[in-house]
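Inverse folding, one chain.
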């Protein structure tokens, strides 16, 4: 049993500035996982025991004992019923999907000695088989199949895959293209004052009565708005033509007279309709007097 002094020393070493936990794959399998399976308690408890499938990956960093960019957990292997013993890797908001086949891990001192297997999984948001791929990655380490030790516990390493600048630019371009397609596919509807829409007789027959009454009311209001506008334009054109004709005339009235005298015409009677009497009754013959004749000669 660890004493209080050992626990204080352990806590002090872990929290020392510059301390990092970056074990190799051989150390994870041959030391940490194997000792956990056989029940040997380690002096420094740096890897906690947690069922990570009860949490989403973005919540796991806060549940790990140590780690800044990589987080480690001992995880129980939960079997999924009715699927051939395949482990259940489903969370509340997504699922972990395996990529590729398992990779064998060997020791550096003896490359022929297999100490474990590594499975790589990627987290998808949504429900299988569909889902949105994320940048959360998990390496699941387990003991080899020929190992006589229990295999109900695995060691998982959680981290986020670094995204290159090229991939980020491609994502931004795709997002911009998608937004442009949405803008082109759904143009803004014109206002009611700019565009008038009238229903055909066939459409009016197929409309429900409340909807038809609403459409007819809107059309009537639109016509009431258009007619005064047309009358206003006509009055403006007439006024403009009147001003133009008034300003453009060259006729000047004599000084002291505001209007021209009326044109004097002879009065017509019934007997003036005769051609002969009309000639004798002309204004020139009426003024033909003896005095005028003497003046003429």
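Residues assigned per position:
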């Amino acid at each position: 049993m660890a004493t209080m002094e050992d626990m204080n020393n352990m806590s002090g070493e872990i929290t020392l500035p510059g301390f990092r936990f970056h074990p190799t794959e051989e150390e994870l399998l041959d030391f940490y996982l194997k000792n956990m399976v056989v029940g040997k308690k380690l002096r420094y408890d740096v890897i906690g025991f947690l069922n990570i499938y009860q949490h989403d990956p973005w919540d796991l960093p806060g549940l790990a004992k140590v780690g800044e960019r990589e987080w480690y957990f001992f995880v129980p292997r939960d079997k999924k019923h009715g699927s051939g013993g395949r482990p259940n890797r489903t969370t509340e908001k997504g699922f972990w999907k395996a990529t590729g086949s398992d990779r064998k891990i060997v020791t550096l001192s003896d490359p022929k000695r297999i100490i474990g297997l590594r499975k790589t999984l990627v987290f998808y948001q949504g429900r299988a088989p569909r889902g949105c791929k994320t940048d959360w990655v998990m390496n699941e380490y387990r003991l080899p199949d020929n190992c006589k030790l229990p295999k109900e516990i695995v060691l998982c390493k959680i981290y986020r895959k670094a995204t290159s600048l090229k991939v980020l630019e491609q994502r931004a371009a795709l997002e911009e293209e998608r937004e442009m397609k949405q803008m082109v596919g759904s143009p803004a509807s014109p206002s009611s004052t700019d565009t008038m829409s009238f229903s055909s007789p066939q459409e009016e027959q197929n409309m429900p009565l409340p909807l038809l009454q609403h459409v007819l009311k809107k059309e009537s209001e639109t016509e009431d708005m258009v007619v005064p506008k047309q009358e206003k334009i006509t009055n403006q054109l007439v006024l403009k033509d009147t001003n133009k004709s008034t300003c453009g005339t060259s006729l000047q009235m004599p000084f002291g007279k505001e209007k021209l005298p009326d044109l004097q015409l002879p009065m017509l009677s019934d007997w003036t309709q005769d051609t002969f009497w009309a000639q004798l009754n002309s204004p020139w013959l009426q003024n033909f007097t003896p005095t005028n004749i003497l003046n003429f000669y």
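Confidence is low (pLDDT under 50) at residues 1-8, 190-199, 245-249. The radius of gyration is 52 Å.
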